[in-house]
């Protein structure tokens, strides 16, 4: 049925996740042609436009109909898009509005934590004179991010979703390591890795905590098994540093 809304939404979602964003957009537009306020088709349309590099059209749509940005799923989609564009303030704005509407959404709390911690981490890396000293303004933001991740973990615990919980715990662990809470960070990252043993990103987080805690042998052991292309180069570099610090230059040279 060419006008069956549910079927069109399903087709849009399937095509989106298959990477056929132009086809997904066509299905979403078909729904919106019948109901311009459809709460599922609008965020799908925005997500497709973003993937197709047509962000200007999203801005035009929001300018013409700002009320669509008050819908729950649209706020979440806009926050995702803003994060992908590294517009962290904008993402935080959308997520806070979303949480005002729905306080028990773990995905929103997790995403808000990321929107806060990523720029705080970058500012810390660029400006702090010492890894053991965190300026009060950045510390406040990191504590806020920790609270967001804790809220997400609390909500996810009710449903026991392993991979999502692992992601939240890993992010909280990374945040806690920046705050110097190495014991809590280690517990978070170990728990995360037990929930998702295939994740090299979590493995890297745990290795970083081990490094910061001075456990070089443990860090090197974790780094040695990292194989994901996105992480392998940094893993080998850090592994070599571990062996140099342990006064094993011959092992570092092999790496």
Which sheet architecture does the biggest sheet show? Answer: none
Proportion of residues in extended strands: under 5%
Intertermini distance: 60 Å
Question: Roughly what is the average pLDDT, rounded to an integer?
Answer: 93
Q: Spell the H/E element sequence.
A: HHHHHHHHHHHHHH
Low-confidence stretches: none
**Discrete helix count:** 14
- CA radius of gyration is 21 Å
Q: How many DSSP-defined strands?
A: 0
Shape, principal axes of CA atoms: elongated
Report helical residue fraction. Answer: over 70%
Find the structural class using helix and strand composition: mainly alpha
Describe what you observe in this structure:
- With 255 residues, the chain is mainly α.
- The chain is 76% helix and 0% strand.
- The chain contains 14 helices and no strands.
- The chain has helices at residues 5-17, 21-34, 41-51, 55-64, 72-84, 88-101, 106-127, 136-157, 162-178, 182-195, 200-212, 216-224, 229-245, 249-254.
- Helix 1 packs antiparallel against helix 2 (21-34), helix 9 (162-178) runs antiparallel to helix 10 and helix 9 (162-178) runs parallel beside helix 11 (200-212).
- It is elongated and about 70 Å long.
- It starts with a helix and ends with a helix.
- The mean pLDDT is 93.
Q: Brief overview, please?
A:
With 255 residues, the protein is mainly α. 76% of the residues lie in helices and 0% in strands.
SSE topology sketch:
Blueprint: H1 5-17, H2 21-34, H3 41-51, H4 55-64, H5 72-84, H6 88-101, H7 106-127, H8 136-157, H9 162-178, H10 182-195, H11 200-212, H12 216-224, H13 229-245, H14 249-254
Helix pairs in contact: 1-2, 2-3, 3-5, 5-6, 6-7, 7-8, 7-9, 8-9, 9-10, 9-11, 10-11, 11-12, 12-13
């Amino acid at each position: 049925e060419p006008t069956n809304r549910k079927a069109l939404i399903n087709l849009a979602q399937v095509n989106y996740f298959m990477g056929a964003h132009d086809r997904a957009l066509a299905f979403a537009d078909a729904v919106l042609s019948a109901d311009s306020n459809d709460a599922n088709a609008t965020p799908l349309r925005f997500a497709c436009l973003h993937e197709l590099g047509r962000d200007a059209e999203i801005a035009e749509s929001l300018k013409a109909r700002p009320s669509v940005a008050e819908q729950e799923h649209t706020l979440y989609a806009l926050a995702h898009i803003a994060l992908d564009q590294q517009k962290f303030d904008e993402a935080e704005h959308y997520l806070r509005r979303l949480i005002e509407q729905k306080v028990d959404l773990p995905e929103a709390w997790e995403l808000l934590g990321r929107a806060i911690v990523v720029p705080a981490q970058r500012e810390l890396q660029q400006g702090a004179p010492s890894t053991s000293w965190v300026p009060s303004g950045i510390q406040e933001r990191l504590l806020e991010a920790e609270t967001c991740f804790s809220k997400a973990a609390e909500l996810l615990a009710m449903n026991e979703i392993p991979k999502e919980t692992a992601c939240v715990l890993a992010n909280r662990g990374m945040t806690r390591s920046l705050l110097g809470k190495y014991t809590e960070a280690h517990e978070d990252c170990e728990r995360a890795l037990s929930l998702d043993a295939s994740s090299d990103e979590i493995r890297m987080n745990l290795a970083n905590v081990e490094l910061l805690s001075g456990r070089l042998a443990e860090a090197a052991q974790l780094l040695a098994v990292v194989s994901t292309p996105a992480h392998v180069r940094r893993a080998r570099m850090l592994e070599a540093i571990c062996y140099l610090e342990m006064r094993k230059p011959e092992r570092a040279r092999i790496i």
